[in-house]
Amino acid sequence: MNTYEIIEKKKEGQKLSAEEIKYIVDGYTNGNIPDYQVSALLMAICLKGMDVDETFNLTNSMIESGNTIDLSKIEGKKVDKHSTGGVGDTTTLVLGPLVASCGIPFAKMSGRGLGHTGGTLDKLESIPGLSIDLDIDKFIENTNKIKIAICGQTTDVTPADKKLYALRDTTATVNDVSLISSSIMSKKIAVGADCLVLDVKVGSGAFMKTVEDAVELSEMMVNLGEKAGKNTQAVITNMNQPLGRAVGNSLEVIEAINTLRGEGPEDLYELSMELAEKLLLVSGHSKTEGEARAILEEKIASGEAFNKLKELVQLQGGDVSYIEDVSKFELSPKFELVSEVDGYVKGIDALGIGEASKNLGAGRETKESELDLGAGILLNKKIGDKVSKGELLATLYTKKENAEEIKAEVLKAFEFSNQEVGADKLILKVIKHEQ
Length: 435
Ligand code: URA
Ligand code: CA
Fold this sequence. Notes:
Transferase, Pyrimidine Nucleoside Phosphorylase, Chain A, domain 3; Aldehyde Oxidoreductase, domain 3; binds calcium ion; glycosyltransferase
């Protein structure tokens, strides 16, 4: 096989074979094919596209480039959730305990935050004592015991994706449906869950700017999941503002705890319920959405979902007294941002808030950056809220000296209107395989 001819073929818009795709992925991963040839091929893929078969073959080749995780020793149908990168998105910490309290195994390998999006592992580490370093045997044992475990990734899955993603990032070839979906789905399939729910964000700061693009991406990912034998659904959700009110590690843990107690912000509750409902459906636990919803509401009302979080924290070595009394979380010094105008909140740029939160110390600039787990932003106003001049818009928590500068950044993320603003829909579309 010949790399030049493969590039030429895709340039002409022809379909690549499984062997050709594997040749490129293997050759690139082991260093035999140079960046410039793969860059040219990636650009040809962006311009000419790949069909479902090609995308599936690319996904498989990337899975085969590294280790996979065998979770077959976990009893029952294991579920997993993936979000395409929200701001203030604490759904994992809500829906994990929620579905586990229904008896569904939630064995989650999570990541750290980078740039404007947070990571579940960092959030969990704001609970004193809690360890996310579980080896695979412990991870499986814990999941069998209490139906939930959350840990960091220990083995090297999909090294091809890491290398390709870095190259895409510098060659303007990130935004392609086949490349994004194979990148996401290879990682999800490699870590071993039986069924999967995807939360595909639309809006500022999201990969997909329009619902049409999000539908295309979701359909491709659902197709890939189903072809790999995993029941998959996708939910397309609005990212016209951060999710919930809290953005930052300790702040989001507190928000997740409140939500599991039935006292959280409405949008975070609604999205967690929607995704949990889909997990009950894809795992075969419930037959209808109504049935699933009733079960989940009961788990919140009875306190079982909240208790499941306590069990998780306990089993992973965390101090449960923080879960019982959230005032124990130590937050950084606070700064209040007040409105300079009268009006209604029309939008809150999620990307802008994510960046500001990172600058306050809640996120990482590079992989090596130190985090301030007590830093972040609480939004006192959200879309549709009326505000008066001098009224509190947001509270910033930080140890940084340039808090005043960052206040201006947060203010810039708010968009106001003179007229009343209706609340936007959060759940925009559900994509299932039958469709
Ligand atoms: N997230 C990923 O993991 N890969 C992509 O290509 C885009 C988003
Ligand atoms: Ca939040």
